[in-house]
Amino acid sequence: MEPRYRDLARPLQWAFVAFATLNIGLLLHGSDMSVFRLMALVGYGVGAILSVVAALRWHRLGRRLAIGLHLALAPLQFVFSIAESVALVGILLSLVILARCRPRFPLLSPRARRVWLTLHVGFSVGWLGVALTMTALAVIGWAADSHAMRHGAYEVLHVIELAVAIPSMALSIITGLVVSLGTKWGLVRYRWVLTKFAIAVSIPLVAGTVESALADELALRTIDPAGQPGATGIALTACLGSFTVALWISTVLSVVKPWGRTRWGRRAVAVRADSPSSPRSPLTVPSPPRPDAGTSTSPAGLARVLGRRQRGLVWRVVKDWSGSG
What we know:
Elements: H1 6-29, H2 35-56, H3 58-80, H4 87-101, H5 110-143, H6 147-181, H7 191-221, H8 230-256, H9 263-274, H10 299-305, H11 308-324
């Protein structure tokens, strides 16, 4: 009988092949061939081929191939969604496949952990800074009186979103996955880690479906000098502000680490506790600790502890005490 994690993981590979084929058709149907569209075409083409290989060779190398593939595609599909919004569904599909595969990763070495943790902190702080900047630009665009400042704010916001926000978002999620899966924290063992992961995944989904559409609409509307942001500008500001608050919550969670373990984490602890160990034999009596020469209470030990000037005095006292005895 196959392990439980394999009951759906292998058929889901074929589901992803169908999903990737659908996206390739939608991407080819588009008129413009932007960089993001080409990236999505190549990514889904490679993903479909590797998914077929993983499904056919599941018992040998297919499971490992599927884990590596969807670890990469989970954040990259947000970039693909710039060209085709249906790609956002692929993020959830990749996460479901990873959950069904139940991957186990070796722990990172101390040096590798420091490197990946430094990268994760840097990209995460950059993501937070970008969110603050975009929120400020949304406020400026909504409150500006002049047409040049209003339209310029939304144009700069759109450029920052494509050039800075998306790479920071993807790199922060990738490095966060490496740090969590390669250390004792895991991805679903602790509530604060799982909450951070939920925040990191939800922001790209909302940004790709809501925030990006609002920003594009405002950039087009404010081309006309008479165009006003109105309620759309308020909605964009609220959306970006919520991203900033969520990222601040994620930062606080990284520092405080509250709430303890999840049920999966408690289950892992229980499994380790029930595993056979090598207890010490009850007949083995630990030997008493050997006294250190530096802490001995003998006259010679005391003489070694004290300084050179006091050694003569100690020996005189010992000699007089021995003679009187």
